[in-house]
Write a structure and sequence with these properties.
mainly alpha, two-stranded antiparallel ribbon, two-stranded antiparallel sheet, 69% helix
C-alpha cells in the first residue's frame, strides 16, 4: 500500500510540473487527475496516527486543528457570506496542500531511498517548470516546440513564481560544488544537468523580474562560494564561476533586465504590500465577527497591489489568514507555520546550506508572494519533516543523531 501511495505522490508531482501551474485560473481534468493521485497518496488507516514516529506530536496536533478550523469553520463561513463558489474551491484546495506533510510524511519513515528520489524529482520538476515558462519570451519558441504548453498563456506567467523554481536553482548550485560518487561520463552528465537546471531557473526568474527570488538566489550563490573557499574546495569554486559565463551567453542583455528590476522597484517599491495589509485590515475590521472568524474561504477585497481589482488572494499567507480566517485563523495557521520554522532553525544549525534552500522560498511565499496557494508550497513544507522522518539529511547524504522528531 505504501508503495502505491508513494508512486501516486510522485505521479502527481510529475503531472503537475509537466501540465499544470501553481495557481491555475481554469482548473480542468489535469488538476482533477493531480487531486485524485494526491488523495490516493494520503490514504492510510488510520488517517492520523496518535503515536506516529514520522511526524512530531506538535506538528500533528497543529495540523489537525488547522484541518478542523479550515473545514468546519472557514468553509461554512464562506458559504454563509455567499462567497463565489469557484473562489471557495480555489482557496480550500490549496489549504489542503498545506496539510500534505501530515498525511504523507510517514511514507519516508526510515526510507532514505524514497526521500532521495522525492528530492531529486522536486529538483528536476523545478527545472521543467522553469523551462515551460520560457513561452513568455520571444526567443522561447524553441522550448515551445520541444514541450508544447497545454494552458492559456496568461496562466504560464506564474510558473516562474513557483517555489520549486527557486529551490531547484539553489539545489543545483549546491550539487555543483559537492563531491560526486559517480565518475567519468556519468559525473559529467550529472554536473551538466545541474548547470542546465540552474541556468533555466535563473533565466525564468529574471525574465519575469522576480526580484525577491533573484535576490535570494544571489545571496545563496555567495554563501555557497564562501563555503567552497572555507572548505578549500577549489574545484567547486571554479565550477561556480561557470554559471556566470553561462548567464552572459543565455542572457546577453542582462544589463537591461537589471535596469528593469531597478525601475520596477522604484515604481512599485515592494509592490504596495503595506497598502495591501491596510486594505486587508480594513476589510477584516468591518465587524467583530469578521475580525474574529474572517470572511471564510473565497473572501475577496479590493487590493491596491493588484491594480485595485477585487481579488480573492493576498501576497502574504499571514494577511490571507486574517482575511479569510480572522484573528483565530492567524493564530492557528501561524502556530502551524511556527513549527516548520522551528524545524528549519534546527536544520540551519546542522546543515546550513541545505536548510537555506528550503528557507528562501518558504519565507518568500509566506510574506511576499501568493505562491502559498500552490502545490509547490505543500511539497516544500513536506521536505522539512521528511528530513527528520528518515533521521538523516538526504540533501547531504550523511547521518546525524540529532535529526529526530
Amino acid at each position: 500500500m505504501d508503495r502505491l501511495r508513494y508512486r501516486s505522490l510522485l505521479g502527481a508531482i510529475l503531472l503537475y510540473a509537466l501540465l499544470s501551474s501553481p495557481t491555475p485560473d481554469h482548473p480542468g481534468w489535469i488538476e482533477a487527475a493531480i487531486g485524485a493521485l494526491l488523495i490516493l497518496a494520503c490514504l492510510k488507516l488510520p488517517l492520523i496516527k496518535p503515536h506516529s514516529t514520522a511526524v512530531s506530536p506538535a506538528l500533528q496536533i497543529s495540523g489537525i486543528v488547522c484541518l478542523i478550523y479550515g473545514s468546519f469553520i472557514m468553509l461554512p463561513t464562506g458559504l454563509l457570506y455567499q462567497n463565489n463558489l469557484i473562489d471557495i474551491v480555489r482557496d480550500f484546495i490549496p489549504f489542503l496542500y498545506w496539510l500534505l506533510p501530515i498525511f504523507t510524511v510517514d511514507l519516508f519513515r526510515e526510507r532514505p531511498a524514497y526521500a532521495r528520489r522525492f528530492t531529486l524529482l522536486l529538483w528536476l520538476c523545478g527545472g521543467i517548470i522553469a523551462l515551460r515558462s520560457f513561452r513568455f519570451d520571444p526567443a522561447g519558441y524553441v522550448f515551445d516546440l520541444l514541450m508544447p504548453g497545454t494552458l492559456p498563456a496568461q496562466e504560464l506567467y506564474y510558473l516562474a513564481n513557483s517555489p520549486l523554481t527557486l529551490f531547484s536553482a539553489c539545489f543545483s548550485l549546491f550539487l555543483l560544488t559537492q563531491p560526486a560518487k559517480a565518475h567519468g561520463l556519468l559525473k559529467a552528465i550529472f554536473s551538466l544537468t545541474a548547470l542546465t537546471v540552474f541556468l533555466l531557473c535563473l533565466s525564468a526568474m529574471m525574465l519575469t523580474l522576480q526580484r525577491a527570488s533573484v535576490a535570494a538566489l544571489v545571496i545563496f550563490y555567495v554563501l555557497v562560494f564562501l563555503h567552497c573557499l572555507y572548505r578549500r574546495r577549489w574545484l567547486g569554486a571554479l565550477i561556480l564561476a561557470l554559471p556566470v559565463f553561462g548567464i552572459l551567453i543565455v542572457l546577453p542583455d542582462i544589463h537591461t533586465l537589471l535596469n528593469a528590476m531597478v525601475l520596477k522597484t522604484q515604481t512599485y517599491g515592494v509592490n504596495m504590500r503595506d497598502l495591501e495589509w491596510l486594505a486587508v485590515w480594513n476589510e477584516s475590521t468591518q465587524s467583530i465577527t469578521r475580525f474574529i472568524f474572517g470572511g471564510g474561504w473565497g473572501a475577496v477585497f479590493v487590493d491596491p497591489a493588484s491594480g485595485y481589482d477585487t481579488v480573492s488572494f493576498t501576497h502574504s499567507m499571514i494577511s490571507a489568514s486574517l482575511l479569510k480566517g480572522g484573528i483565530i485563523g492567524v493564530l492557528i495557521f501561524g502556530a502551524y507555520l511556527s513549527i516548520y520554522t522551528g524545524k528549519l532553525i534546527h536544520l540551519l544549525r546542522l546543515y546550513f546550506l541545505p536548510a537555506c534552500m528550503i528557507l528562501a522560498p518558504f519565507l518568500i511565499d509566506v510574506f511576499l508572494y501568493g505562491a502559498y496557494k500552490s502545490l509547490d508550497f505543500g511539497l516544500l513544507l513536506l521536505t522539512i519533516p521528511m528530513l527528520f522522518a528518515v533521521k538523516s539529511s538526504i540533501l547531504l547524504n550523511i547521518n546525524h543523531p540529532s535529526c529526530k522528531t
